[in-house]
Predict the 3D structure of the following.
Amino acid sequence: MDLRVRPLNDAPVRHPAKYVLYWTQMNRRADSNHALAYAAEQANCLRLPLLVYEGLTCTYPEANDRMHTFVLEGVPEQQKRMEELGAGYCFYLRKRRRDDNRVLYKLATEAALVVTDDYPTFIAAQHNTQVPARIGVAFHAVDSSCVVPMNHFAKREWAAYTIRPKIQKVLRQFLRPVAPVELANRWRLPRPEWHTAVTNGNVSSLVAECEIDHGVRPSLSFSGGRLFAEKTLHAFLTARLRRYAGEKNSPANHATSDLSPYIHFGQISTLEVALAAEGYAEEHKLAATEFLEELIVRRELAFNFTRFCKEYDSLEALPEWVQVTMRKHANDRREPMYSAEQLEWARTHDPLWNACQREMLLRGKIHGYYRMYWGKKIMEWSPSLEQAHQTMLHIHDRYALDGRDPNTYASVLWCFGLHDRPWGERPIFGTIRYMGYDGMKRKTDVPGYIKEIDHLERTGVDPFRIH
Ligand SMILES: Cc1cc2nc3c(=O)[nH]c(=O)nc-3n(C[C@H](O)[C@H](O)[C@H](O)COP(=O)(O)OP(=O)(O)OC[C@H]3O[C@@H](n4cnc5c(N)ncnc54)[C@H](O)[C@@H]3O)c2cc1C
């Protein structure tokens, strides 16, 4: 069987059946999607049509207007593209806790098999553990998140330098476009009566009807959906890629792709982004190496970590040298010290840190370079490292459009030494790498960045927003 496919139960394929069901949880796209391609292949083999089911519930932790808006904005285009392929498409918005929670199981009763996305964190990981035993039909998870499939690796890798050569060895084998989906049997059945019609005009009213936290407003900078993912990629290739290697650590210069929200919700795949970046770089005689290092090596190290380490959301996942140094410095004096609430509302003495946190509150993402500084300072100013870790995850869960991702858990723990090495001994951090304000001031345009975030907060308008 294909290295990307994991059968998650022993239940047989159902005969007779009305369709093959693709339940899209994390790869919400019609293009460049191995899970969709696999489901289509199975449908063709079984001479059945394909039904794509996508859902959004009010019950995941910290469900709020920001996350709901971003997902719902993607639905009209998703429906259009799936229907153009000849697949059936239905979307279910579970607005209230008391609303039906058995939609997937009902659809599965008429399916020959259910295909879904293989994903190591958050709600998809929970579903893929709990659903297979209860669904009563073959349930296959397909990895369409990584360029090199997670199954290629037999165990946890320890750092970028251990996974990099393994990725490079097989990269050409996997860095290939997904063949276009062709369905032999078009969908002709009616849509289920519970389908939620989502249009470009009704997203905000649907969000308002949901039993979720309405206190977290939609991002001022990112609109969800495939069209915006494509536009963001295009803008990156044409205006930023040539500056990426030299300026990726200069937040005020905006040289990075800003694709992480779209990648997280699967509205675009890293495979197609990598192919596009390579193609554009070749055509324009540029180098895409640094970008591909982040997009593939760093990101897939995070997927490897969360796939193989069950405690990925805990400090227990950290290596022994970190455990030793954390114990040694557990009682070091913290001055200043801030509560989780002060941090959440950006109320510290440090204007750069506050600007980073305000960027998170307003945009739903912090620039990657300052995100490291942001994390390191939370460690320094929290009563304990355990609390610092909780605060970082809480802020990501609540505000980050790219949060709850393997990258979230791995990168937050990177601040504590994951995938890193020991550095010089100092208070609070012990031998964990430290980052300070002076370094940021020396290496980056701190006043330019603060001015940008002030303007964003004051006007509510982001000049970098893609329209
Ligand atoms: C404390 C902390 C928390 C973070 N939380 C998240 C998170 O919740 N979600 C998230 O996607 N990333 C997270 N990162 C990693 C990184 O900061 C973001 O991926 C990046 O800033 C996203 O912006 P971009 O799309 O413009 O990145 P680009 O520089 O354009 O990179 C392209 C893509 O490569 C991947 N990538 C880039 N940098 C890294 C990295 N260091 N590790 C792994 N993958 C990377 C991302 O998918 C990114 O979209 C975090 C980093 C830190 C230090």
Remarks:
- The radius of gyration is 22 Å.
- The pocket of flavin-adenine dinucleotide is lined by residues 248, 256-260, 263-264, 294-295, 298-299, 302, 368, 371-372, 375, 396, 400, 402-403, 405, 407-408, 411-412, 414-415 (CB under 6 Å).
